[in-house]
Amino acid sequence: MEYLLKLLRSFHEKEEDKAQVDRFASLLTDRVIPQYPTMCEAGVKIRNSKATFPKAWRTIYEGLKRVGFFRCFIPHEHGGFGTSEESLYSYMELLGYSCPSLGIMFVAHGRAVDMILIGNSEDQKAIYLPRFADGEFGAIAMTEVEAGSDAGAIRFSAEQAGENYLFNGQKWFISNAGLASIYTIVVNTKKKKSPRALTAFLVENDVEGFSVEDLPEKDGLKLLPTGRLLFEDVTVSRKNMIGPEGRGLLLAMNVIDRGRIHIAGICCGLAYRIFDEIFDYSRKRVQFDHPLTSSQEISFKISDMYTQINAARGLCFYALRQMKTPFYRGSSSQAKLFASRMAADVARSGQIILGGRGYLRSNVVSLLSADARGMEYVEGTTNIQRMLISRELFRAQQ
Ligand SMILES: Cc1cc2nc3c(=O)[nH]c(=O)nc-3n(C[C@H](O)[C@H](O)[C@H](O)COP(=O)(O)OP(=O)(O)OC[C@H]3O[C@@H](n4cnc5c(N)ncnc54)[C@H](O)[C@@H]3O)c2cc1C
What gap in Å lies between CA 230 and CA 108, rounded to an integer? Predict the structure, then answer.
């Protein structure tokens, strides 16, 4: 962690930003990193519509609130810290290093916050942003059984009834299911398959007719609640509409661009943790009377791991610089595409260097390896990133 911390601190000029990185990192070092393997073993379950976490979670959650982590996603004028993009990115790397599930929880949370910011209703901002700042979790719900990569196929029915809408449908694979108290959700208000029929709303977790179910156990990301949201005749006020009717998909796609850089940051942190573990191990492990690092095959593999991590990090910083340009979507997709595959490759190299130990499920590199594989699906699969990159390339050529 020390080297990563030094590097991340060097990205910040202001002393207060460096101090915030330090506060956050010491919480992760003291409370999260030591608990990661046992928390993965216990996992999170959704019961009676609520996510039930291992015992250590309560202290972690209180610690995150104490260091003001929830405020980092909120602008100054709404009770937040107005944290810079570079700082937020650094926090994502630190989360990826410590517990990737926790990172994804905050990516989903951050996108719910962004949906409300981008929707730009002063009433919604005044009601919900202070609650997010105080530690309530948000979620973003798009995926349905029949509408995954093809979000334009969302069918979830929202029928207008006067000033309200009647929600009937299901979402699945939703991060923070059973944890969030505020869900941002993209639904179909026109009963036809068209991106223009999709509208975003926010829904609180205690509305009548709403429930949450667990999904079958995931391969990795054991601490991330991932569930199914069920709506049966749920009445949602028009006041809860985010942005104009028919613009839900557009709004969601815009906030997900930022999410992709954050996922890429988590991947860099995750891969760096594996690198740290392997670097240490390979110097200490002696076979044929020599440390593993005396073999060129092993030391070259370690050099490649390190270079790949920094290449992914470079793409993340490039994407952060493109934020206000027309090339933002393509560059955030490139960062996510490269970093998620890089994390899976680094994990595989790490497991090979560990030998048989790398095949033990309880080994931290095995746990991180299963987490890394999950990164290729979140915020759009690898092929969807390629699709977005090629669309931007061909549009630029016209
Ligand atoms: C851990 C985790 C957390 C998640 N969190 C959320 C969340 O918070 N909110 C949310 O809404 N969703 C969430 N998802 C869902 C995720 O966004 C979807 O799994 C993803 O969009 C892919 O959809 P799908 O699983 O239906 O796969 P499909 O869309 O069925 O795709 C299957 C395969 O086909 C490929 N494919 C599809 N279409 C094409 C094409 N035209 N060209 C080439 N290849 C194609 C895909 O890349 C993929 O490899 C989460 C998923 C996971 C695993």
Answer: 18
For ligand 1, atom 16, the nearest C-alpha belongs to 378
Say which residues have a Cβ less than 8 Å from residue 292's Cβ, sequence separation at least 6: 281, 282, 283, 285, 286, 298, 353
Atom nearest to 171 CA in ligand 1 = 11
Of 316, 336, 323, the residue nearest 389 (C-alpha) = 336
pTM of the model: 0.96
Mean pLDDT for each consecutive 10-residue tract of the chain (398 residues)? Answer: 84 85 92 96 97 96 94 93 91 97 98 96 96 97 97 96 97 98 98 95 98 97 98 98 97 96 98 97 97 96 98 96 91 98 98 96 96 96 96 81
Residue nearest to atom 24 of ligand 1 (CA): 148
CATH number attached to the domain at 138-248: 2.40.110.10
**Alpha-carbon gap, residue 146 to 393, rounded angstroms:** 29
The number of the ligand 1 atom at minimal distance from the alpha carbon of 384 is 47
Query: Taking the domains of the chain in order of start, what are their residue ranges?
Result: 2-133, 138-248, 250-397
Q: 1.10.540.10, 1.20.120.80, 1.10.357.10, 1.20.1250.20: which CATH number matches 2-133?
A: 1.10.540.10
